[in-house]
Design a protein that fits this description.
It is a single chain. The protein is an alpha+beta fold. Helices cover 23% and strands 36% of the residues. A 6-stranded mixed β-sheet has the order 6-7-8-3-9-10, with helices on both faces. β12 and β13 form a beta hairpin. It is globular, with a radius of gyration of 24 Å. The structure holds adenosine-5'-diphosphate (ADP) and magnesium ion (MG).
Amino acid sequence: MSAGVDLDSVSMDFGTFRAVDNVAVNIQPGEFFSFLGPSGCGKTTILRMISGFIDPTKGMVRIGGRDMKGQRPNQRPTALIFQNLALFPLMPVWENIAFGLEVRGVDKIKRRARAEELLRLVDLPDAGDKMVSQLSGGQKQRVAIARALAVEPSVMLLDEPLSALDLKLRQHMRAELRAIQKRTGVTFIYITHDQGEALAMSDRVGVMSQGKLQQVANPRDIYNNPANGFVASFVGENNVFAGEVKGQEGNLARFVTPGGTFTARLGPGVAPGAKARLFLRPEHARLLADPGAANSIPVEVTDVAFEGNFISIHARDAGGQVLVAEARNDGSSSIPQPGERRHFAFDGANAVILTGDTAAKDVDE
Ligand SMILES: Nc1ncnc2c1ncn2[C@@H]1O[C@H](COP(=O)(O)OP(=O)(O)O)[C@@H](O)[C@H]1O
Ligand SMILES: [Mg+2]
């Protein structure tokens, strides 16, 4: 059983501060939907409104089409998981999972059977009699998920549940969570400041900044067709050129910057005459030996970093801006050395011109 969640122009004010500003989105039954944004942008506040711990100042939350106004958290078909798992460390795993069933008066044989079924679902089939304190961080996380699923929620709300785990485990748990969601068919609403998590797991992602939903789209479109400068700069790496749109060139726009004139796609709502920014992903940049290519500017290579599966090359243009190109480590491209002069070039179809503020990049914690 899963249910859709509708946020109908929902706002949340704390005093005079608007933490969530007119957010409208329809999350489908069985969807894995993530809210992605920097710390303080209003993600947790959205989850608290869906779970019923706070009521929106304006707008309506509907679950399964029903207005949730006045429904307390325990009356809603939701379960909440957050970073702090609140498991009972000295209680057997199976009892932790069945805790919510005991509260509901389910008898012990049925509780144990349900716990074992959920342990198989989260891929911990033999852990039922262990103490929670004996488990690793990732195993505890799975127990918490099993416990939340035990009461058969229609909607799972997950607030940065992986942020306490180390990087390797976090990456492994992405696939696990996704698989559990697909197996159960329960609607997952997942909150994270980690773009890699959101892109890897979600059917759709809602990118947020300062309480406002900036874009809702599938992960590919979020990355390839960002709606504005915030989304482009928050998700993934970019080379950014500030300039002005000055007319058309075929399907592309002509974009004049202090360092040179380029062509690029026009983003949504950007018109000729606009002051804007051109965004180009490092994997679409090339460093050519010969001059004369369209969309190219002379640069000097400053740094070459071997990253394993790719090679990251930094180069400085005439104005002193550092640009980044990534080459695949498959022998298909010649890798320049620091000090070499090259021409930073790209295909205009791979660059997009957008307006709006850019995101201050967090260093991932
Ligand atoms: N109960 C509250 N009272 C006052 N301000 C709050 C309250 N809860 C959250 N805020 C503020 O609302 C903003 C959004 O918070 P939150 O939803 O927790 O952000 P996120 O989860 O995206 O980091 C923050 O500026 C936070 O300080
Ligand atoms: Mg939060």
